[in-house]
Write a structure and sequence with these properties.
Layout: H1 8-13, H2 16-34, H3 38-51, H4 60-71, H5 73-82, H6 94-109, H7 115-129, H8 134-167
Helix pairs in contact: 2-4, 2-6, 4-6, 5-6, 6-7, 6-8, 7-8
């Protein structure tokens, strides 16, 4: 059987970072469902993958995302909540919360990820994993967050630059 050529959308879905984001969504979703710390669950999965070759290793970017979201959860959730109209974060589907958390963290902290990519990936994950209404909802929320992301990144860079002086 001849291999069919991949269209651009299919190729993107197979990308390493896309898979890493999807696994990060799975881990954040599971951590919330089990009421455990996402970083602890991540460590558990890394150890399991080391012991059992049948378990896929955790990609470095999945690690970055889960730890990043866990470390900055209050600010990420506060940002998401500030852009929800007539909704509360706790009322959103858990998978949508996980998707939004990853995208907001990327918008604020992942300097190697263009904002359009973070938003597009979140919308694609919502299409794959959530309800029919979720992609447009996720896009609407992130469309507002993307407007403040440059200021958040600049503030974080200024804070990092000021730290060595404070330590001296």
């Amino acid at each position: 059987m001849a291999e069919q050529p991949l269209d651009k959308k299919s190729f993107k879905k197979l990308g390493t970072r896309h898979k890493a984001r999807r696994r990060a969504v799975d881990l954040l979703f599971e951590a919330e469902a089990r009421d455990v710390d996402p970083a602890d669950l991540l460590d558990e999965r890394v150890e399991l993958a080391a012991r059992d070759q049948a378990v896929a290793p955790v990609h470095a970017y999945t690690h970055t995302l889960v730890e990043g979201v866990a470390d900055d959860l209050d600010r990420v959730d506060g940002t998401i909540e500030s852009y929800l109209k007539d909704w509360e974060l706790s009322r959103l589907p858990a998978v949508d919360r996980a998707i939004l958390r990853i995208a907001v963290w990327e918008l604020f902290h992942a300097n190697d990820v263009p904002p359009v990519v973070a938003v597009d990936e979140a919308v694609e994950l919502a299409k794959e994993l959530s309800t029919d209404d979720s992609p447009s909802f996720v896009n609407g929320v992130l469309g507002q967050v993307v407007l403040v992301a440059p200021q958040v990144r600049a503030a974080a860079a200024a804070t990092r630059a000021a730290r060595p002086e404070a330590d001296a």
